[in-house]
Design brief:
single chain; about 200 residues; mainly alpha; ATP-cone domain-containing protein
């Protein structure tokens, strides 16, 4: 990223600095807005790293195509929210939820769909583990994620290509697994078509 971010922050987009060194900030006695932010973040693969708002800006630009200035605005608002939560540590999925909430509050629904995390609630996974065998459980997890993915990605220009890729992938699976995947995708497309017809999306 270039120095444009520093320039935009200097122009008064928010009270938070997007670029700062957490270690240096900890040495200061004066309380700055950055002192109210989490110090660490846990990624989805379990790694712990220093919390860096710059990563939010860059991920918004990379994953959604937002312009830099808008990505900084979103990030600054998320930092304001974080500063009220009193968190010393935050998990990446939780952080992504807050960012998606900010995208929604600004009416950026298409960008929120591109940025959201796909998955299944813990309760549902536990129930599935009780009822399904290992291979069926894996297929059900995959099917549900694909269903969410197809439904959300119908909003993008690359949707048909994604559907074709999933269809091709499914042909390599066992019949029962292939049926789960294809049924999930068809259900997502059906729901999307119904919402489209009702002008819901």
């Amino acid at each position: 990223m270039d120095n444009g971010i520093d320039v935009l922050i200097a122009e008064g987009i928010g009270m938070f600095k997007i670029n700062f060194d957490p270690k240096k900030e900890l040495k200061k006695k004066i309380i700055n807005p950055e002192d109210l932010l989490p110090k660490r973040v846990e990624t989805t693969d379990g790694k712990i790293s220093a919390f860096n708002p710059q990563n939010i800006v860059e991920s918004l630009i990379r994953e959604t195509g937002l312009e830099q200035k808008r990505a900084i605005e979103i990030t600054t608002n998320v930092l304001r929210r974080l500063s009220t939560l009193g968190l010393d540590f935050i998990a990446a999925p939780h952080l992504r939820e807050l960012i998606c909430g900010e995208l929604t509050s600004q009416g950026l629904h298409e960008y929120r769909c591109q940025y959201t995390r796909l998955g299944i609630p813990i309760y549902d996974v536990r129930e599935m583990l009780k009822e399904q065998s290992g291979s069926t459980f894996s297929s059900l997890i995959t099917a549900q994620v694909i269903e969410q993915f197809v439904h959300l990605d119908r909003l993008s220009e690359d949707a048909q290509m994604v559907i074709d890729e999933i269809t091709q992938y499914a042909t390599k699976l066992e019949l029962s697994e292939r049926k789960l995947i294809m049924d999930s995708m068809e259900n997502a497309l059906r729901l999307y078509a119904e919402k489209k017809a009702k002008n819901i999306i």
